[in-house]
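subagent[fold] <- orchestrator: predict structure for attached chain, return tokens only, no commentary.
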Amino acid sequence: MVEIIEANDSNFSEIVSTGKVLVDFNAEWCGPCKMMGAILEQQVAPKVDGVKIVSVNVDQSPRTAALYQIQSIPTLIFVKDGNLVQTLIGVQKAQDVIDLING
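subagent[fold] -> orchestrator:
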């Protein structure tokens, strides 16, 4: 099972610099974000290996959100070795996220 890591403006670039990283941009007040967070925690994290799953609160990390031009939440981005591979906007099905990670 993969642990979900909390990231912020100060540690984000270090976390995503190597390996496969799935980033969940969210906010405390966002209902769909809570749904996506639960999907990641309960359905995705137990079924994937070799990936970091990272949660970024856009209210607390505005520079990181701006860097990736996050305009709607929840937004998931998939990064490999620091390079953006794909962006998914809105609540996603668990299997679609697992397929993205394993693809």
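orchestrator: received. Logging for downstream: The radius of gyration is 12 Å. The longest strand covers residues 20-26.
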